Amino acid sequence: MSSSYLSMKCLSLKQPYAYLLASGKKTIELRNWNTRFRGKFLIHSSKNVDSKRSKFLGIDHRMLTQGAIIGIALLYDVKQYKDKVELEADYHKHYADTKKFGSCKYGFMIENANRFQNPIPYRGKLNFFEVDYPIIKSLLYL
């Protein structure tokens, strides 16, 4: 791999959740699957927008970036939710509609999120995926 390239993990989220995570307002990302990964990762906003959820959260869905890498954050731990009570207790950290979630979910614990001033158009994938992109190194100040 050339030194002008940086490979980094990336996670795609539906809007408005990608925006909330990149802005530092959302500190737990809920998933059906666990991960051993810990470290910095890129935040990708998918082309899917939940306009009803955006409205409920007071976010204008028309202003949300879609189909781009919009920020970076640090995944420092994973919490396993044993029941809906635990999940609902963390609502102010994940903002998810708990009616859609079962009793056994994983919460990716996130900190140090930063939203990019200039999103990078990019196609998302499922789960964590690797991103090789020539300009990322200078954007991330690594």
Describe this structure in words.
This protein is of the alpha+beta class. The protein has one domain: Hypothetical protein (Archaeosine Trna-guanine Transglycosylase, Chain: A, domain 4, Roll), CATH 2.30.130. Helices cover 19% and strands 44% of the residues. The chain has five helices and six strands, in the order βαββαβααββα. The chain has helices at residues 17-22, 51-56, 84-89, 91-94, 136-140, and strands at residues 6-15, 28-31, 39-49, 68-81, 105-121, 128-133. A six-stranded mixed beta sheet has the order 2-5-4-3-1-6. The longest helix is centred in the first third of the chain and has 6 residues, at 17-22. It is globular. The model has no long low-confidence stretch (mean pLDDT 87).
